[in-house]
Amino acid sequence: MAKEECKALLDALNKATACYHHLVLTIGGSADSQNLREELQKTRQKAQELAVAIRARLTPPLRDRGLGAEERAEFERLWVAFSGCLELLEADMRRALALGTEFPLHAPRRPLVRTGVEGGASGVAARALSARSLRHEGERDFDVEDLHQLEREILKVGEMIQDMEMKVNVPRWTVQARQTAGAELLSSASAGVSSVGGVSVQQRMGPCDLSKALAATIFSAVLLAAVALAVCVAKLS
Amino acid sequence: MAAGPAPLGGHPRAQKPHLSKMERVVVSMQDPDQGVKMQSQRLLITVIPHAVTGNDVVEWLIQKYCIAEDEALHLGTLLVQHGYLYPLRDPRRLLLRPDETPYRFQVRLNWEQTPYFWMSTLWPAAELDYAIYLAKKNIRKQGALVDHEKVGYHHPSPATPAESSQRNPSPTSGAHSPGSKLIQMHKHTHPIEGVSEGRWGVHPPELGVGKSFPLETFNHPQAHYDQLHRKINHTWDLVVMQAREQLRAAKQRRKGDRLVIACQEQTYWLVNRPPVSLLLEGGSWTAEKSLQGQCVSLRCSLRTCLLTLGKDVSFEILAKFLTKTVDFYKRRIECCRKALGRTRVKSSVCLEAYLKFSSQRGPHDPLLSGCLPSNPWVTDDDTYWAMNAPSVAVPTKLRVEQWAFSFRELLEDPVGRAHFMDFLQTEFSAENLSFWEACEELRHGGQAQVPALVDAVYQQFLAPGAARWVNIDSRTMERTLEGLGRPHRHVLDDAQLHIYMLMKKDSYPRFLKSDLYKDLLAEAVVPLETKRRVFPFMWKPRHSSPSLALLPTSTSGEPEAAAGSPGGGDGET
Q1: By the number of CB atoms within 10 A of the CB, which of A158, A189, B316, B534 ranks highest?
Q2: B323 at the A interface (CB within 8 A)?
Q3: Tell me, what's the ipTM?
Q4: Longest CA–CA separation in chain A, Å
Q5: CA A161, CA B1: separation in Å to the nearest integer?
Q6: Is residue A111 included in any domain, yes or no?
Q7: Cβ-nearest to A116 among B111, B226, B255
Q8: Could you list the pLDDT tens digit for every one of the 237 residues in chain A?
Q9: Domain total for chain B?
Q10: Domain count for chain A
Q11: C-alpha radius of gyration, chain A, whole number
Q12: Distance from B95 to chain A by nearest Cα, in Å?
């Protein structure tokens, strides 16, 4: 079904945009590094691919005048969410460009602001790409070239937004959102988050989770040992 | 939709100078050798580095810039207020520890923010972003957008019954449910709260003047949340989706990083809160750039004022800010309305008229088409000026042709006016022109002569049995006669205009078709171009009246007239 496909793609785009937003937050801070820039690039490229795919899927139904009112309303809702997502993405890309130019990685004079953020964000990027882990393979001047590419991509996204506005006429104010105020407090299961191609792999590579698992195993081992000892004592006595 | 960081109006985003200065200060604080001393903050299990005490900051400022302690304190407060530093313990109080006693600096306070949230990159904080942030906060705090210590309030916004039935009454006193919009009263009730269950929320004009109420009532995240929900209702799906996803993305990080980022975001939105007045007016938050500066300054001044005065603020101060913006908007509306009413000419029409004018006047322009007999600046011969003097016996042909362009040209040329007067005399309507001339004299004459002149004009032209009575319509005549009681320079303007239009529409076309004019055209003089005496060695004889428009190609095209004497004024045609 076209609608389900679109929804799935939109959820993936949403996830990618959120992850990109999260990654952009740390540019220029103490966690900024080449790896971060690479992750940014991969995430935004993925987001752009998804955007192009969604646009290709959503445009024909909306231009088709013979569509029923309910179906059309549904598609319009998806369209509004999609264009909002795209605008957020563009805004974040612009921020990334501005901050990236202000905080070049390999310039000796300007140190990065010490923000207290440590540790990598590879988990975030991996989540965006629905992959298990990320390989980092950039060269030394990666960030400078990346900025040029980022500029071009910003222009492309801007053009895409413009194009969308021209081609499809969806009056935003008539769209009724499904979610009401405070709906985010309801359990997230009802949101129907499904990634592209099945279950998204949750990354559990954070050090605190590892320590939690370790603590749990140690505890259970100690418990078993205690039980065994108690049984022995009971048997002996 | 979300305004995003796209520059409005096409202007590049210029950094405000004070912000770039502050940035430099903050960056120099980062220096590992000479910057501020960093410590680690220790929460229960997590250790987060890069914490700075207020005391350290002030000492560093004093040492680096050789300033007094007060100034360092003030500078530090500015840094905090603009978001470059933020307090850890009490994030809502954007002060570098209040200025009561200087000893309070022992408390470990400040962290440094990421550049993403620096104020200098001044994107208009968009409604969509703020909505997403509030939704995230909602999820994190399980519906309590209120801090525990703050006072509750009774919010008069429409509550959907479906939602309120879903929520269980919260067990603890701290948690509040937004769905039902009823927030429990807390222990520290405000005196006014105790008095009545009065409905007051975001509209202080409903309150009586002189009451004071806490700042948080209408600067409240809950109020913002509801307002945003009403405004951008159509994108609420996206808001919810993004909020959930962003929280999930944040979970991929270490706990310490998560805390840091959450604190940063909170401070950013505290610093960039929407201005009070705009929220109350219900006006658009993503205002145009010209308004933005006003709003930022309003916001800053309001905030500093309120912070120094403390939590409770009297209503008068707020009222002053409110009226200011109401007037401001009213004036803007007036301005825009006037601008709408102005007449505008399409550029296509303008350009056509311009082309017509240029093609008509082209041959008459001395620079474009050369001036005959010779350009006085080139040949040192002033025949040209003599022939084109204001009153000359025989006008040149070009001049006579110019009279046909418009009535104004004819009247402005003394020779033309004289001939026109002759023509009118043959038609027995010369008094019109005389009247017009008299009115001109009145308008441009001396102030002392005005009453006498008005009187004379009246006697001669306007009085019922006057000798040279002019034909003016009754309405204009009435108005003129009324004005004659108090004579001034422009009292006869209406009548003059009427007569002018009469002549223009009636006599002028007839003049152009008359024999008189045709004779004038025939008699007009076309002077010959004088040949310049040049050395016999020269290849190309120079032109005595070079035309600038033809200058590059003006070699052999010009017909060489027979060499007339350069001094001859009335050359043969």
Answers
A1: A158
A2: no
A3: 0.74
A4: 88
A5: 12
A6: no
A7: B111
A8: 678 888 999 999 999 999 998 888 887 776 667 788 888 888 999 999 999 999 888 888 888 777 788 888 888 888 888 988 998 998 888 888 887 877 777 766 656 666 666 666 677 777 777 766 666 766 667 778 888 889 999 999 999 988 888 887 777 777 777 776 666 666 543 333 333 333 333 333 445 678 888 999 999 999 999 999 999 999 998
A9: 2
A10: 2
A11: 24
A12: 19
